[in-house]
Write a structure and sequence with these properties.
This protein folds into two domains: 21-209, Fructose-1,6-Bisphosphatase, Chain A, domain 1; 220-340, D-Maltodextrin-Binding Protein, domain 2 (3-Layer(aba) Sandwich), CATH 3.40.190. It is built from nine helices and 16 strands. The chain has helices at residues 3-13, 21-30, 38-58, 81-95, 160-164, 233-244, 255-265, 284-297, 329-340, and strands at 68-72, 78-80, 100-105, 112-113, 125-133, 144-152, 173-179, 183-188, 193-199, 204-209, 220-222, 248-249, 268-271, 301-305, 308-309, 324-327. A hairpin with a 5-residue loop joins strand 1 and strand 2 (78-80). The longest helix is centred in the first third of the chain and has 21 residues, at 38-58. The radius of gyration is 21 Å and the shape is globular. The N and C termini lie far apart (69 Å). The structure holds 2,5-anhydro-1,6-di-O-phosphono-D-mannitol and magnesium ion (MG). 2,5-anhydro-1,6-di-O-phosphono-D-mannitol binds next to strand 5. Magnesium ion is lined by residues 106, 130, 133, 287.
């Protein structure tokens, strides 16, 4: 074989390795002969939403959509213009998918009911999301993200709110999109964690890692240390211990970016209770639960307190907040040991 022939042969072999998010979803669906395809359609709506939001994020200053719209969301927080745009994109793309019964967003006070009728035998889902997490980072060209959680609609529940109030352990799928130096889509459907990067030349998410495993330990913690004096004492004891043991501190201030770093490099992310926010700041249903599912699927841990998994919390409100400790199993154990002592 000539050198030219072997080059052609090599280039014929390599393309077989390219798997788009779309192809990945179909591969996964094929593993379940009873699947209706409804979940695949929802994931594809999330994929197109991610591309649209990424395009807006990239042009934010040029399109003059930075800053606030002058209104507050249900949490009493200022809405950024891009929060509203990202929310609208998700509502509209998911709205076109037959399998979505209910959507619930950080930006909407009540869940939005898209379809009430139950098609005989067809599965319906609830999709919960934080459309643009960490959006105040946008003003300084920092990383932001989208987080989503997918639950089966509970047929027995009397109303929309009640049917989405399920434990995180009931999630069918969860994921996030990080709009950083590249756009990354991280997904779990309960069979491990897979990662995709948006190729801007072709407009497709390409699979770059399968079955991600979080490092068991890494001397790094991620927390807003400015709040340290108002953390419960156990957290302060942990921080003293970590600093005595040579830990580094890394905090972007956007959960998606902080958790993504920890998923790949290890460490622990925390948003503890503070005097001002006794349950912490992060929302259970569309921030803590999906991130905890991803981290657990990658071999990590996610707790609200020693011995209490995030995924076991029974929600009583769509926007309820919980303390969050998640990351490498050994690092979460160190935090829990200090909280329990
Ligand atoms: P948001 O959903 O309103 O953007 O708030 C959530 C964000 C998280 O991404 C991040 O971890 C946290 O708020 C940062 O809060 P703080 O500035 O108090 O450290
Ligand atoms: Mg958020």
């Amino acid at each position: 074989m000539t050198a030219a022939e072997s080059l052609v042969r090599e280039s014929l072999v390599r393309p077989a390795d390219i798997v788009t998010l779309q192809a990945h979803i179909l591969q996964q669906q094929a593993r379940y002969p009873e699947a209706t395809g409804a979940l695949s359609w929802i994931l594809s709506a999330l994929s197109i939403s991610a591309k649209m939001i990424a395009a807006h994020v990239r042009r934010a200053r040029l399109d003059d959509v930075l800053g606030t719209v002058g209104t507050q969301n249900v949490q009493g927080e200022q809405q950024q213009k891009l929060d509203v745009i990202a929310n609208e994109i998700l509502l509209r793309t998911l709205g076109g998918r037959e399998g979505v019964a209910i959507v619930a967003s950080e930006e909407n006070e009540e869940p939005v009911i898209l379809r009430t009728e139950e098609d005989a035998g067809e599965r319906k889902y609830c999709v919960l999301f934080d459309p643009l997490d960490g959006s105040s980072n946008l003003d300084v060209c920092g990383s932001v993200g989208t987080i989503f959680s997918i639950l089966r609609k509970d047929h027995r529940s009397p109303d929309a709110s009640a049917s989405v109030l399920q434990c995180g352990s009931q999630q069918v799928a969860a994921g996030y999109v990080l709009y950083g130096s590249s756009t990354v889509f991280v997904l779990t459907i309960g069979l491990g964690v897979d990662m995709f990067v948006l190729d801007p030349n072709y407009g497709a998410f390409i699979r770059v890692a399968q079955g991600l495993k979080i490092p068991a330990a890494h001397k790094s913690y991620s927390v807003n240390e400015g709040n340290r004096r108002s953390f419960p004492e156990g957290y302060q004891r942990y921080l003293d211990w970590a600093q005595e043991h040579g830990y580094s501190s890394r905090y972007v201030g956007a959960m998606v970016a902080d958790v993504h770093r920890i998923l790949l490099k290890g460490g622990v992310f925390m948003y503890p209770p503070t005097r001002k926010a006794p349950n912490g700041k992060l929302r259970l249903m569309y921030e803590a639960n999906p991130m905890a599912m991803i981290v657990e699927q990658a071999g990590g841990k996610g707790l609200i307190a020693p011995g209490q998994r995030i995924l076991d919390v029974q929600p009583d409100d769509i926007h309820q907040r919980v303390p969050v400790i998640l990351g490498s199993p050994e690092e979460v154990d160190h935090v829990a040991a200090h909280l329990a002592s």
